[in-house]
């Protein structure tokens, strides 16, 4: 066994959350009279936390108060509507089931706000993924390595035997900052070209390929 600990990104890696993110975002934007955003626009905006998602979606000239208001409203609305269309990617449940059976230590580290990360992990993956960490005031968000270190600590794992799995340049940078290799997945929110350009160690096109690496 080359690795015994696998840290997963959530959005674009384990779960396809894009439709619910777009719908929740557009609900808030239209509520305030701002133009709605397309699915492709939202895809390009995600990955760096809710404040960045909302700020990238607002038209130029917004105030800090307007941003704060929209962020708070988005959090509240998304929390109640984040499972309308969200689903695990094909093959993910089967992968996690196999990894759990083989006694791998599994965790989720995400820039989505912490309450949503924990709820989604529990509802979709149950006890297969015992540690789920999202953005909070107590820990720097990715690409800072802090949340990866916290996951390793909570798992009681050895970071030298850990690998990070994600779909974006932020994930690749997070893994690099934590000193662990990154497996880039092509079914998420960024292209293969983006993954190749940021120097991930492995690139996979389907979840079962991860088993052959670890």
List the helices and strands and how they pair.
Elements (H helix, E strand, L loop, with lengths): L4 E4 L6 E2 L1 H14 L7 H7 L4 H8 L6 H18 L5 E2 L3 H10 L3 E9 H12 L5 E5 L10 H10 L6 E5 L2 H10 L3 E4 L6 H6 L4 E3 L3 H6 L1
Parallel strand pairs: 1-4, 1-6, 4-5, 6-7, 7-8
Antiparallel strand pairs: 2-3
Helix pairs in contact: 1-4, 3-4
Task: Walk me through the structure.
The structure is a single chain. The chain has helices at residues 18-31, 39-45, 50-57, 64-81, 92-101, 114-125, 146-155, 169-178, 192-197, 208-213; strands at 5-8, 15-16, 87-88, 105-113, 131-135, 162-166, 182-185, 202-204. The protein is α/β, with parallel strands linked by helices. Strands 5-4-1-6-7-8 form a six-stranded parallel sheet, with helices on both faces. Strands 2-3 form a two-stranded antiparallel ribbon. Helix 8 (169-178) links the parallel strand 6 (162-166) and strand 7. Helix 1 packs across helix 4 (64-81) and helix 3 (50-57) crosses helix 4. The longest helix has 18 residues, at 64-81. The N and C termini lie close together (7 Å).
Major β-sheet annotation: 6 strands, parallel
- The fraction of residues assigned to DSSP E strands is 15-25%
pLDDT averaged residue by residue: 95
Characterize the overall form.
globular
Q: Numbering strands along the chain, what is their spatial order in the largest sheet?
A: 5-4-1-6-7-8
Number of helices: 10
Residue runs with pLDDT of under 50 for 5 or more positions: none
Compute the separation of the termini in Å: 7 Å
What portion of residues is helical?
40-55%
- Give the helices and strands as they follow along the chain: EEHHHHEHEHEHEHEHEH
Give the helix/strand class: alpha/beta
């Amino acid at each position: 066994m080359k690795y015994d600990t696998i840290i997963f990104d959530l959005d674009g890696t384990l779960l396809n959350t894009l439709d619910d993110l777009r719908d929740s975002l557009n609900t808030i934007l239209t509520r305030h009279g701002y133009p709605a955003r397309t699915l492709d626009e939202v895809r390009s905006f995600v990955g760096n936390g809710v404040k960045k998602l909302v700020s990238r979606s607002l038209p130029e000239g917004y105030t800090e108060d307007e941003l704060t208001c929209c962020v708070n409203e988005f959090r509240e609305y998304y929390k109640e509507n984040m499972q309308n269309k969200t689903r695990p990617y094909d093959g993910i449940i089967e992968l996690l089931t196999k990894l759990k059976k083989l006694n791998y230590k599994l965790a989720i580290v995400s820039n989505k706000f912490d309450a949503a990360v924990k709820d989604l992990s529990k509802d979709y993956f149950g006890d297969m993924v015992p540690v789920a960490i999202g953005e909070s005031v107590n820990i720097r968000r990715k690409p800072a390595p802090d949340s990866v270190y916290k996951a390793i600590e909570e798992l009681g794992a050895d970071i030298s035997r850990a690998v990070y799995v994600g779909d974006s340049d932020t994930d690749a940078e997070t893994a690099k900052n934590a000193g662990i290799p990154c497996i880039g997945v092509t079914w998420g929110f960024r292209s293969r070209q983006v993954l190749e350009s940021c120097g991930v160690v492995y690139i996979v096109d389907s979840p079962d390929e991860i088993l052959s690496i670890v």
